[in-house]
Amino acid sequence: MNSILKQMHAHRSIRQYASGEVPEDDLRTALEAAQCAATSANIQVYSVIHVTEPDVRSRLVELTGGQEKVAESGAFLVVCGDTRRHRILAEQANEPIEESLESFLLCAVDASLFAQNLVLALESLGWGTCYIGGLRNDLAAVNELLNLPQGVYPFYGLCVGEAAEEPWKRPRLPLDAVFFKNAYASDAALLEIMNRYDDDMAAYYEKRGASGRRWIDQMERFFAKPRRTGDRTFYESQGASLR
Ligand SMILES: Cc1cc2nc3c(=O)[nH]c(=O)nc-3n(C[C@H](O)[C@H](O)[C@H](O)COP(=O)(O)O)c2cc1C
Description:
Blueprint: H1 3-9, H2 24-34, E1 46-51, H3 54-63, H4 69-72, E2 75-82, H5 84-92, H6 101-124, E3 128-132, H7 139-146, E4 152-161, H8 187-207, H9 215-222, H10 231-237
Antiparallel strand pairs: 1-2, 2-4, 3-4
Helix pairs in contact: 2-6, 3-7
The protein binds flavin mononucleotide (FMN).
């Protein structure tokens, strides 16, 4: 394996952090590398807010469902989709801004390609990271706290810092469950692979001291109820159109 592949295989989300900030230089180095990610038509519809105010970080702990790492990590970033710059340019040119489901998808895709490049760059510099989807628990409150202008869509947070734990690597599905040649797999084949993976995950949970937990049980319930049903209202109030 080359060093990049090794780095990718070494990924684990870090949830316990040593004290100490992440130096601005490292953040900037990683952010500039992250910006090298491909971006739809070079539109670069994303931005990042580095939250350094302790009071704001404490409030974000509450808003993310009590995730203390949001305050304890060495840096906390909020990754956003962002059509703000395009809005400014359109206004200057007297052109309309017609947001659509497609423009929102462009934001989500571009921001996530950027974010994952950022994670990889930070990990290569020796920092631990953890995405924080809990940021979407109460988007209106997050928005009020961060005072984001129209066209800026907070998607998730990212904790960065020195790892104070060495978590086991979380197994992934066998490639056969996600990679198909010419034809999609049959349901029976997928079920068989998922049952095997469920055993791998059971062994992983056992090592972590959570014996009895099963991946299939969790997944069976994952989409049982609609999740974060306020997302649409919030993003539309920020200027998105999800139609
Ligand atoms: C968009 C996104 C949001 C996530 N949100 C959270 C979160 O709010 N809290 C948390 O502890 N982990 C969160 N995670 C981490 C996932 O739980 C983790 O990546 C997954 O279980 C696989 O584990 P690994 O990253 O250690 O391989 C998130 C991951 C992603 C990609």
